[in-house]
């Protein structure tokens, strides 16, 4: 009976290690995805800020041109 019990415990330990390894792989994958998304977010924010500056400049130019046309 002791041998059967010992085998059952070994099987549980092996399953536990397999589960831990699986969880570690999943956790590492989630971290990689999170890092990518954070990097993508920062990249998009930078690009959107640049576009916002360009749009603001264009809006100011249009307002200036409209003011010159209405004066003339």
TrEMBL record:
Family classification: Belongs to the BRK1 family.
The name this protein goes by in its record: Uncharacterized protein
Single GO cellular component term: SCAR complex
A GO molecular function held by the record: protein-containing complex binding
Keyword Cell membrane in record: no
Species: Nesidiocoris tenuis
Subcellular localization(s) per the UniProt record: Cytoplasm, Cytoskeleton
Biological processes annotated in GO: actin filament organization; cell motility; regulation of actin polymerization or depolymerization
PANTHER family listed in its UniProt record: PROTEIN BRICK1 (PTHR33668)
Domain of life: Eukaryota
Record-linked Gene3D superfamilies: 1.20.5.110
Keywords: Coiled coil, Cytoplasm, Cytoskeleton
